[in-house]
Amino acid sequence: MGRFIVRRLIQMTFVLFAVSIMTFLIFNVIPNGDPAERMAGRQPREAQIEAIRKEWGFDDNIFVQYFTTMKKVFTGDLVSYFTQLPVGEEIVKGLPRTLSLAIGAAILWMFVAICFGLYSAVKAGKFADRFLTIIALIGISMPVFWIGALMNHYLGYKLGWFPNGGYVEFTEDPIDWAYHLILPWTALAILFIGFYSRVLRSNVLDTINEDFVRTARAKGLGERQIMIRHVLRNSMIPIVTLWGLDFGAVVGGGAILTETVFDLQGVGQYAAEAVGQLDVPPVLATTMFAAFFIVLLNAIVDILYAYLDPRIRLQ
Amino acid sequence: MSVGPAPSGDPILTVEELHVSFATEEGVVQAVDGVSLELQPGEVLAVVGESGSGKSVTAMTVMGLTRSPNARFEGTAHYKGTELIDAPEDQLRQIRGAEIAMIFQDPMTSLNPVMKIGDQIVEQIQEHEALPDQQARERAIELLEKVGIPRARERIDNYPFEFSGGMRQRVMIALALSCNPSVLIADEPTTALDVTIQAQILLRMRELRDETGAGIILVTHDLGVVADIADRIAVMYAGRIVEHGTLDEIFYDPQHPYTWGLLGSIARVDRPRPERLPAIAGLPPSLSDRPSGCHFRPRCPHEFAKCVEVPPLESRLEGNREHRDRCWLTAEQKKQLREVRPGEIGLAAKSTGADAA
């Protein structure tokens, strides 16, 4: 198990290395023109461009350039030339907000999806199953910015049941923190609930016909125990994989729309604003940040997978 | 050769006129058509037949494992005074695993792959008995030792994939025996195993029968397996029992041509080797579209006019009420027809139009 984890972490480093090369090429090498000029913002002075060129080493060869860029990204030495704010600090400021959103939403969507998916499978073909199928399809079809905006407008602004966007630190007031996040969590979770409950339903229906479920029945176990200990445990394996990957993707940028709609000021919103202004240093940093989370969660999923499915460990 | 108990005792399990049919897209499949069986305590009853003869469905129906919205049941199955066929699920659950236990065909898929084998056994014990974890675990270790798993105390925390097929089937047997059932239904327990492992498993089952006094219903297509362990045999074909008798009766005085065919197609080391192992020509009928009269008629070389009527399962031998069959031929005719070579029982080739041409 220890070796498995170490090997997985080494792999992870290689993937991140590859991503960093891609990012570097995309932002600094492939576009035409002077990278220093692009980075300096609108209507820069000549001296400013020169300073940036010198700082980033754009006159050096490409390998040195890559090295300088990565050094700046990983030491938190980046500064946005539009806002003059240090990029590292902005990301650190946004991270708890993004994580609050992503973790809460992930727990919510997993929990509800298990309930819906299992119930749907147990009632397969009956009215409840069809009803949940339709609900799931609606959930999958609604874009998050649209449902988010509707929630914000009706539940937040018109009815005043929920705060109209914004974020409160967890350490400041946990209840107010959750209160501010209920709508964003729900908006973000709806899509995944629809998707996951469908996947779980079909997994459960496949597993129900397995021989070991018949064995469980022959043992005299109750239906509830059969479903939870034997069917669900085996049906959950692919879902957990998805869960980790989607969580990584949400932290790494999937939450951009939700953060923007509810004005959470997380990393996603920061990235979106930077992209809008063609502000290269924060885009570079947030891209690497996103890649890091996706790769990290991939590795965690693999390790978790080995725990859930003991057959994986030996391989 | 094992000696069966006196057939006059009180049976522990009685199946009477069991009919099972399933509604499918291709029409109604009559899987079991009027099967009656009796099982005495401590006896091994073998139910023999080809795939699709209804033997597994019969066994699983007794356990209530074939229940589904598409299944229809008629007839009765009594276990110690409890009617099983229409018993409510809750009542059946108390019998399953505790009173009647089952071993399935494929040990590779019959255990939960993500649960330790010990937990799977403990789960069953605790379902039926209020036993603390530690005691249930000790019982599981004892059971694993009893079925011949070495280093059971360590192996109990292994997962099924860490065992070979034969070892997994031993785990399945341990599981089945964990609550001291009075009836053990083994559905093709050795089919998926190597021949050497088969023999070990069968030996184990016979020893356990002797120790616990449980009655065993052994469902199999393999007469070789039956010869090792069975006391009585019921031969099934297309949902019906076509012959029923003791081991010796079936092996040395078989009455139904289908039984002759089965016996003739066993590979035997004590006889000169034929060029090719004889097989019964043709295929068993589809259970949704069975021939009228005797179901074996289309494959039987000895078919005659009377065969369009369904022959009842009854004793056709003088002075032997227990040896019953479904064939219209007279006992004298049977004696002649079944000898394909001197002293050797088999089914003659069916002469068809194609052969004549």
Q: What features would you describe in this structure?
A:
- The complex is a heterodimer of chains A (315) and B (357).
- Helix content of chain A is 77%, strand content 0%.
- Chain A is mostly helical.
- In chain B, 30% of the residues lie in helices and 22% in strands.
- Chain B is built from 12 helices and 14 strands.
- Chain B has helices spanning 55-62, 89-95, 117-128, 133-146, 152-155, 165-177, 195-212, 223-229, 247-252, 257-264, 331-337, 353-356, and strands spanning 13-24, 27-39, 44-48, 71-79, 82-83, 100-103, 183-187, 215-220, 232-237, 240-246, 314-315, 324-325, 339-341, 344-345.
- Chain B has an 8-stranded mixed β-sheet, with helices on both faces. Chain B has a 4-stranded antiparallel β-sheet with strand order 2-1-4-5, covered by helices on one side.
- In chain B, α3 crosses α4, α4 crosses α6 (165-177) and α6 runs parallel beside α7.
- The chains are: A mainly alpha (315), B alpha/beta (357).
- Chain A binds chain B through residues 210-212, 214-223, 225, 229-230, 233-234, 237, 308-311, and chain B through 63, 65, 89, 93-98, 101-102, 104, 106, 109-115, 123-124, 127-128, 159, 161, 172, 175.
Compute the separation of the termini of chain A in Å: 10 Å
Number of helices of chain A: 13
- Which structural class best describes the helix and strand composition of chain B? alpha/beta
Cα gyration radius of chain A (Å): 24 Å
Shape of chain A: globular
The topology string of helices and strands of chain A comes to HHHHHHHHHHHHH
- Overall pLDDT level of chain A: 85
In total, the number of strands of chain A is 0
The residue ranges of chain B in which pLDDT falls below 50 over 5 or more consecutive positions are 1-7, 353-357
The fraction of residues in strands of chain B falls at 15-25%
Secondary-structure class of chain A? mainly alpha
Q: Give the overall shape of chain B, derived from the CA principal axes.
A: globular
Main sheet makeup of chain B = 8 strands, mixed
Oligomer: heterodimer
The count of strands of chain B amounts to: 14
Strand content of chain A: under 5%
